[in-house]
Structures are given as structure tokens and as C-alpha cells.
Design goal:
- With 235 residues, this protein is of the alpha/beta class.
- It has eight helices and eleven strands.
- A six-stranded mixed beta sheet has the order 6-7-8-9-10-11.
- β8 and β9 form a beta hairpin.
- The relative contact order is 0.12.
- The structure holds fe (ii) ion.
Length: 235
């Protein structure tokens, strides 16, 4: 499976990303933004978009939906999916993982070493918990970080600068932060689960090196869920 990241400069939300997962000459389009760029890429690479879907239905993730639906492309709404459902792309399969928390309809798309994560997890941070159900978001993030460590995470937005600023405040002595910045590929925003477990303070509920910071918050921190919730108080 191959992946193409399509950056899109949003008026107020900075850079957001659409993706094309492709295998053979078939593609699965996720969170489409700029139709021209996507169609040019498909033409140049002899790819046919077979299916389109979204990581969730927030307005900034469905910008190109209407364009591609009007072209008759098969559309799968995240609302109408089941956990572990598979979508065929060429001779391969992409798995849908239900990850409610940022929104009730959030899903991630997983195939071998690739995870398209929407707003569930970004590089160095995670999304807002708009559902208010922290326990559900915790379960969803637990599913994500239990995928193979070399899985590359492709997020819905480029929040690197913001995330690194927060990491340096929360965890200033972390020697992995500079390495993380160097490893993130130029021209493509992505990182691995292994890297997130070293730097992202919102998925490191089992990492004792954050305990002294968490203790200062004066919140219960005896269980992994409590440690997650404590970190979310400074998200
Ligand atoms: Fe969102």
C-alpha cells in the first residue's frame, strides 16, 4: 500500500491533510480537500479512485466530498462503518478502526505500516475530546498505540510547531524531542507510534518520567485513565 499526502491551507485552521491510499491502480480517498491536485496526481499515476471516506465529519475534513460524490465515486460515511470492517484497495485491504473520542464518528484507516488517524492523534499531540467522554477517547488511543511500533501515523492537521511548544513546557528535559524534530520527514508530516510514545505527552500515561509533572496538577493519577485525564487538563 502506498500513500500520498495532500496538504491544504485552510483560512483559519492552518494546514490540513487529505490522503490517497493506493495499490495497483486503485485508490481510497480519505478527507479530500483540493480536487484539482488530487485528480492531477491520479491522472499522472494512472490511478482510479474506487472509494472515498472520511476520518470523521467535521467540516474541515469533508471539503472535497461533494465534488467526488458528484462524480459517482462510491462513498462510505464513517457513521455507517463497523469496527474492523475492511475496504478493498487493489489487491490489498484497508481496515477501519473505530476511535470515538475526538468526535463520536471518528475512525482511523489502517493497512500494514500506515495509519491515517484524522484528528484522533497528531504528531506530538492529540485532538480535543469534543465528545467529553475521556474514558472512550482513552480506549481509542490505547487501540492506536498498541499497533506495531513502526506504524507511520498520518494525521489530519500539521500541528507540529504547537505540539513541540507544549512538549517543551511539559517535558523540557526529554532528550527525544530534538531527535523527533529531526526525524520528521521534510515535506511530509508523519511520525511512528514508537516516536509518539517517546514524545507525545498525551499517550504516555505509562511513562514514569512524566509523573513529577502530573503530580503538580493535584489530580488523581493512580490509574492509566486518571493519568490520561490529568494530562488532558493541560491539553
Ligand atoms: Fe475534527
Amino acid at each position: 500500500m502506498q500513500i500520498k499526502q495532500f496538504p491544504y491551507k485552510h483560512e483559519t485552521l492552518g494546514v490540513l491533510f487529505g490522503y490517497l491510499l493506493y495499490s495497483g491502480n486503485e485508490g481510497l480517498l480519505i478527507d479530500p480537500n483540493s480536487p484539482d491536485e488530487i485528480e492531477t496526481f491520479c491522472r499522472k499515476n494512472n490511478l482510479t479512485i474506487k472509494t472515498m471516506s472520511n476520518t470523521h465529519l467535521h467540516h474541515d475534513h469533508i471539503i472535497g466530498n461533494e465534488h467526488f460524490i458528484s462524480k459517482g465515486i462510491n462513498y462510505i460515511s464513517p457513521v455507517n462503518t463497523d469496527d474492523m470492517e475492511e475496504i478493498a484497495v487493489g489487491n490489498e485491504k484497508v481496515q477501519i478502526i473505530k476511535v470515538p473520542g475526538h468526535s463520536a464518528d471518528s475512525v482511523a484507516f489502517y493497512c500494514k505500516d500506515i495509519l491515517v488517524s484524522g484528528d484522533t492523534i497528531f504528531n506530538g499531540t492529540i485532538g480535543n475530546c469534543f465528545t467529553g467522554d475521556y474514558s472512550e477517547y482513552f480506549k481509542s488511543l490505547s487501540k492506536v498505540i498498541s499497533l506495531p511500533e513502526n506504524t507511520e501515523i498520518y494525521p489530519g492537521h500539521d500541528l507540529m510547531d504547537y505540539a513541540v511548544g507544549v512538549i517543551r513546557e511539559i517535558d523540557p528535559e526529554n532528550p527525544e524531542t530534538d531527535k523527533y524534530l529531526m526525524k520528521v520527514k521534510t515535506g511530509q508530516i508523519s511520525s511512528t507510534i514508537e516516536m509518539e510514545l517517546q514524545v507525545n505527552p498525551f499517550v504516555r500515561w505509562d511513562d514514569q518520567s512524566l509523573d513529577s509533572f502530573r503530580a503538580k496538577l493535584d489530580l488523581p493519577i493512580s490509574t492509566p485513565l486518571e493519568r490520561f485525564k490529568a494530562m488532558m487538563s493541560v491539553h
